[in-house]
Amino acid sequence: MTVAAMIENEGRFLLVQQNVSGQSVFNPPAGHLEDNETLVEAVIRETLEETAWHFQPESVTGIYRWRHPEKQKTFMRVTFAGKGLYHNPEYQLDSCIERTVWLTQDEIRSKGKLLRSPMVLRSIEDYLSGVSYPLTLLTDIE
Fold this sequence. Notes:
The chain is built from three helices and seven strands. It has helices at about 40-50, 105-110, 120-130, and strands spanning about 1-10, 10-20, 25, 30, 55-70, 75-85, 95-105. The model has no long low-confidence stretch (mean pLDDT about 95). β2 and β3 (about 25) form a beta hairpin. The two termini are about 20 Å apart. The protein has a single domain, classed as Alpha-Beta Complex (Nucleoside Triphosphate Pyrophosphohydrolase). With about 140 residues, the chain is of the alpha+beta class. Helices cover about 20% and strands about 45% of the residues. Strands 1, 2, 3, 4, 5, 6 and 7 form a seven-stranded mixed sheet that branches.
């Protein structure tokens, strides 16, 4: 189970360029859900760890299932749309992060196979087409 943050500012989206198994790829701030963590807590934490941006989730853009064709591994991702509240340039990013970038949809599309997965572009397309579900879609049962 993974989470991702969709942060848009004036037509540009916050992505990270990261090293994954020796390859440099682009992805929104994203990562795995940890034990005893809600999905909202996970996306806030992952965004901070990968970008040094404090993220406020406002809605769910989608819940995506994707099977990696080579690794034969299935991923479930909840993508959240929201605001980047503020940036902390002193924050130490995760070691796999090469840099953060703000890119337009066309610039992201042009990355092609350098996108970490097809979920990257699909999330952006859904966001831009107005797909939005309330955070109450997600329920944590204790």
